[in-house]
Amino acid sequence: GREYDFEKTVTTCPYCGVGCQLELKTRDRKVIEVGSVYREGTPNPYGEACVKGRFGYDFINHPDRLKKPLIKRNGSFEEAEWEEALSMVAERLTEIKDEYGGRALAGLSSAKCTNEENYLMQKFMRAVIGTNSVDHCARLCHASTVAGLVKAFGSGAMTNSIAEIEGSDVIFVIGSNPTENHPVIGSKMKKAQKQGTKLIVADPRQIELSSLAEVAIQHRPGTDVALLNGLIHVIIDEGLADQKFIEERTENYEYLASVVEDYTPEKVEEITGVEAVKIKKAARLYAEADKAAIYFAMGITQHRTGTDNVLSVANLALLTGNVGRESTGVNPLRGQNNVQGACDLGALSNVYPGYQSVEDPEIKEKFARAWETEELSEEVGLTVVEIFKQAGKEIKGLYIIGENPVISDPDQRHIEESLDKLDFLVVEDIFLTETAKFADVVLPAACFAEKEGTFTNTERRIQKVNQAIEPPGEARADWKIISEISTRMGYQMNYDSPAEIMAEIAEVTPIYGGIYADRLGDKGLQWPCKDREDPGTKFLHQGEFARGKGKFHPVTYIPPAEEVDEEYDFIMMTGRMLYHFHTGTMTRNSEPIDKHEPDAYLEINEKDAKKLRIKEGDRVRVTSRRGEVETNVRIGERVQPGQIFMPFHYAESPANRLTNPVLDQDAKIPELKVTAVKIEKV
Ligand code: SF4
């Protein structure tokens, strides 16, 4: 019958960084269902995809998908032919480059694009435009992870693998809510807990995993360094540090020991609000385990002290010898399906693919030869936040692929004003996003189901993306569009396929040296993978750290930039929820998911609600020093008194209109997690 009449394509999930394999069932150029894939050795061997992976595919066939290029004339968009749109982009970029130099242009690449596309985007910006100002949303999520872990270990990625979760004796989850944001990892942790793994959960909110934890800690937002220094203090004080590991494999221990001396559990209790006995209990549990693993996410990274927070996490693991072995490690969970790959392939303003520094003359020489260009610059480029600050000044033109900064970046009004100030903006996306509306030219892109390539998941696994259907209308894959613009600007890019691009990547990127499309098979490969014989790497830093010895970096506690005062008397945290993803471009256009959570909200503690005389469902106005937003109230016990939580997915109540763009000086990541606000009933 008709219901069996469909085709099947196995590919990689477009949502979070777990990288589940999904089976797309298609008929008449449409995805009609998503099925499970049972494959040994993949991140979800039991086919247990979450609600987003299973039901979040309506956006693919959504009627609002962009199908033709758009050119803005007299303030409104008109459909155009590809030929005209591409020529206009190439001409305008060339004009700006000729008049002001390549530094006047910047590009935003995307964690939603394939590895091959990210590689081409940064190659285009560097080899054709002549600037290192190419960046992407990792700047807003894990820039501080990369900065911190490179200093401590020499490599900024998740050290261990998802399959190792079950083998840990203790799992310490800090600033991460896996059951909502990395659901398959969340389920694995719950399963491990049932089998005897002990959980320590530290989060200002009460999250689902807190209820399963041996020790559940609710520290004040932004006090992570104090908390972690407190744990380290107890471990040293009670003689629980791994002296052999410290002597053989680390450096700078004495300095660490002297800095944490001040952080007694009692003092840390004052700063964090966590009882001293709990701090001691958590420290002992973690230090006495044979195999203890740390997992973290944005709760650690999105602070002006993000890099310090990451360094503290690394200090704790080094102190107890919990790195370089199976089921241990320091494991940042990457939010977007290919944010790891976008970083790996050099969509960052300071590094070429494979984290090779743009400031190193030998590296520059290597790329200049490989790419046959004289345009390469040794000057570190601007990052996401800096690009918007310079819009209309140093930056005249911007090329954005698949990102929606109007919703995702801090201080929305400032982002909108910046986009207005540009001489030329081109946006390539699958929908006319809030950001695309500001563009001079909009180019319609293919989504993950409509193209070939690879994504790299949070555990460094490069997996295939397989085409299931044709793109709608005249939409095209980003790698094709970038190549066309480049060729029109006089730099030939004539790739036949993403596999050909991947072979070029392997030539210039040592950690991807053995990654070729024909080797990926059913399970992909985990980097570092040096050559065609290399089977890839399950966990990092075995025997030796990427930087030689692991290095302790003692850090002291610095409070968040904004604290409560008389006027702004609440601390707002932002984050995600299970049913939605990022700026909502995909999930809010997928009815089966959106219907569960169609409306924006804030979470507030019962006690505060009583004080403010607000009830469940009331409309309130939330105001920070940068703007105001109206939303609906949800009352509960998940947040502590004095704190509220707002998801940032909703364009109609954009949490990021309120957030603070103050930056971590090392990583340039803004402090999205701590904003002082006031709340009024409307
Ligand atoms: Fe997709 Fe992540 Fe859900 Fe897996 S856990 S199905 S990768 S969103």
TrEMBL record:
Statement: the UniProt record of this protein carries the keyword Metal-binding: yes
Cofactor(s) for this UniProt protein: [2Fe-2S] cluster; Mo-bis(molybdopterin guanine dinucleotide); [4Fe-4S] cluster
GO biological process, one term: formate metabolic process
UniProt subcellular location: Membrane
Gene Ontology, cellular component aspect: membrane
Keywords noted in UniProt: 2Fe-2S, 4Fe-4S, Iron, Iron-sulfur, Membrane, Metal-binding, Molybdenum, NAD, Oxidoreductase, Repeat, Translocase
Recorded GO MF terms: 2 iron, 2 sulfur cluster binding; 4 iron, 4 sulfur cluster binding; formate dehydrogenase (NAD+) activity; metal ion binding; molybdopterin cofactor binding; NADH dehydrogenase activity
Domain of life: Bacteria
Residue ranges occupied by any 4Fe-4S Mo/W bis-MGD-type domain in the UniProt entry: 6-64
Family: In the C-terminal section; belongs to the prokaryotic molybdopterin-containing oxidoreductase family.
Name recorded for this polypeptide: NAD-dependent formate dehydrogenase catalytic subunit
Organism lineage string: Bacteria, Bacillati, Bacillota, Clostridia, Halanaerobiales
